[in-house]
Amino acid sequence: MPFTTRIEVLEALTPVFREVLDDSALVLRENMTAADVEGWDSLNHIDLIVAIEKKFKVRFTTSEVTSLKNVGELADLVQTKLATSH
Amino acid sequence: MRFFKDAALAALSVAVVLSFSEIVLRLAGAKYPASLYTSEKERGYALRPNAEGWYLDEGECYIKVNSDGMRDREHSLEPPPNTFRIAFIGSSESAALQVPLEQRFHAEIERKLKPALAVHGWKAEVLDFGGPGYGMAQEYLTLRNHVWKYHPRIVILLMSVYTVLKNTRRLSPDSEAGVPYYVLKDGQLVPDAATQSAPGPSRWRQAWKDKSSDWANQIDLLSLARTAQINLGRKIEKMAGTVRLRARRQPANAPPPDYVRVWPYLPDLPQMQEPWAIAESFFDLMKKECDQQHAEFWIVTTDMNLQTHVDASKREAFRKEIGAATLFASEARIERFTVAHNIHTLLLAPILADYSASHHVPLHGFFNTQVDIGHWNELGHRVVGDAISEELLSHSEALRNLLAGSQPDVTHKASHARELQSSLSDLR
Amino acid sequence: MSYTSVEFLAYLACAAAAYRLCPVRARSTLLLILSYLFYCTWDIRAAGLLAGATLFTFFAGKSVGDRPSHHRAELTAFLVVCLLTAYLMFFKIAAVMPGGEWGRVVMPLGLSYYTFKLIGYLVDIHWGKIQPEQRLVAFAAYVAFFPQIVAGPIQRAGDFLEQVPPDRMSIPDGVLRIAWGIFKKLVIADSLAPGVAYVFAHVKDLHGAALLTGFYLYPLQLYVDFSALTDIAIGTGLLFGIRSPENFNRPFTASSISAYWRRWHMSLTTWLTDYVFTPLRMATRYAGKIGLAFSITVNMVAIGLWHGLTWGYFTFGLVHSFYLIVDALSVKRRARFLSVRPKLDSLASGLGCILTFHMVALALVFFRARSVGDAAWLLSHALSHWSSLGADLLQLAAAAGSHALVVGIAGYAILEIAERRRPDLWWRRTRPVVPRWVRWSVQSAVVTFLCVGVAMLLAQPSGPNQHPFLYAIF
User: Fold this and answer.
1) pTM of the full predicted structure?
2) Does A1 touch chain C (CB under 8 A)?
3) Where exactly are the structural domains of chain B?
């Protein structure tokens, strides 16, 4: 199901983040980065990516992942992937 | 008005920082090379009375100069009863700034002579008049003007062969300002023209310099500043030197660049004849001086590094390099002279060469120098002290007379004091 | 020239003066010239290698960035990275080989640092993070930038190039940062050095207390020495108006080993994370915990071997990979344990700090010891001979100089306080509001300290540097 707005994507991403980062109160914002979230570092960054890939049935490449600057860009990337796969 | 108040407070904070730095430097045990010398007309320079501070060039030693400008403990002018005095004149080997007083050969001689003398109720007292960097002229002047008031029975010239080079102004490798030079005129040694006309330092200026040097030695921050200034000067000189490519005016027949390292081993070189002639005249002059004062005169020659290096291959390589049949030619020359003129001699170089070769230990050098290069280390001093004591016990007539029980002539008379005064005024 | 030599300071003074007078457009060229001049005082042939590698990567970058076809770009990027890595490996391997018939190959100054800059630049272009730099002079200045060439920090191309040409110089900040680095090096690190060197040189002759002292002092010495080097590098960059990335963020306050690695040698660890760990992890992401363990191990062994191809560095990397794997696998469980016991939080983080420090110190023994055997000996005998505790410590103090040890430890304490209280930031906040006499007093005090510092630099015994910077050999 394609998302029309970024907000929708962020809403869909939130449970994934909450599960992987073990924080049930986490609220995602567009300009959020790993530095803003306790427990989000390079070690579990890829766990997040894997969980997102599983949930949305998409695949990312390394270069796509490394050029992400914040959650907003991640949301855009997911949206693009979903749009092109449909 | 507020300006002055603000400036005063700023100055106060500077004072606080400086005091704090001084305290930290002291707590950290910082050591900086001390200033130990003063300038004088007579010998150019001398150890400054009561100066004290660290010597860090070879080894590490805290130096205290006594009130008479000797690197020694305080000695009374009159010898204590039943004390046999031996005086050493010489240069840096005698002053031996690298090792503490108790480890110098002077203390070793006192210890070694003690048993023999104690039997007769006497003890030995060794006085050191060595001046670091001195040449034979300065050693002679020290003997004439500074030694006799202590009434030694034996005077020993600790002769470093390197000092022969310093006998002529031309060949002297580093001439400090005001250092006296003598020349032979009609077979007599006289100060050269430049020495006679040299004005000498102004009294007030010198007193101020000496006082401020003493303060600088006591206050770590000032020693730090002085060391920093000296190092900066050296760095700039080095840079300027490489830029100028050593374009100094070289006189027509300048000696080859490493002559200081090689010529002392070659006493037969034509360029060395004048320095050697002056050296021998100094020996003669010193002997006469001692005869006048009824003291026994000895010449003990020190070694040069390549004669006694612990690595025998280095000695051999050097000998081949300079094309000499033996490394001890200069000692042989000195011995020929002393035998002919009836002067007691001890040549240390062969003894030390033997010792270091058979025991494979370096007699020179410290933790901050190359191996076995430089002045005697503690072991070197011990071996030297033992060698000199043995030689004195077996060949010194003054000692033998004492040990045989007869009382030698008590030498100090008022007439001698008057003689001393007149010869001093001759020099000025 | 050594960073703590008067020659270097004189060079900086002249360079800064020239820079000040230089028009802004010409500043990149001046930086390039200054950097190569500096590099040539070390070795001219190596400067040629540096120039060659720079040119090669510059044109390779343009080629990768301009290529329309993804596959050809990928192939080109892959080949260039392989070549640069081989270039680095050649010298690393040559460094551990005994001198052959071609004589000993000497590792070019800053090889590890500038090669990483080049590889990072190329990969960033391939990943689309930056555009290829069109100005050769600016790029060459980035690669050879002399404040960073000796021992980092490893700055990213984008971060540096967007500051070039810098229009303002931060002279007071730069000077103070450099002075702080020199103070740390000369007063603290060099005071701890003889003690540490003595312990590691005589491992088998020493007993418990002395070995334990070396165990605890070495991490401190390494931190102060390396962070001093970084301070001088960053301060020098500031003089020329360039902001460099930080390398350290109070590493010993980390309460877990993964937090430690986010605070220690940060420019290197972020580089390895971005260019080694993340790609590897992406490739193994479906391999579960095995994939994670594998990626961590390769990453940490790479950090170890980056320092040199010895068993000691290898073991160091292996030990840290073990730590990090355990840490990664247990982090969730630990967080859940603490979330229901909030009162234990501060105790846990305190214990975590202490434990982390010990873990780091242990791995560093392998890093520093002359051989793995020596390291194992030290660790197995550090807690022995309690009865001769006093005598052992006295023996160490005699060998290393008790004054030096006291100054070093006291100095380290001052360093910790300064890093926690940050007097420089406090001053920045309060300066505008204090009366003039306070301003003048503080400024005079700082200038006086600087003068004493310069005098101490000048008064150092001449000749080869007594204690070279530990990280300037990689």
Assistant:
1) 0.80
2) no
3) 83-202+259-427
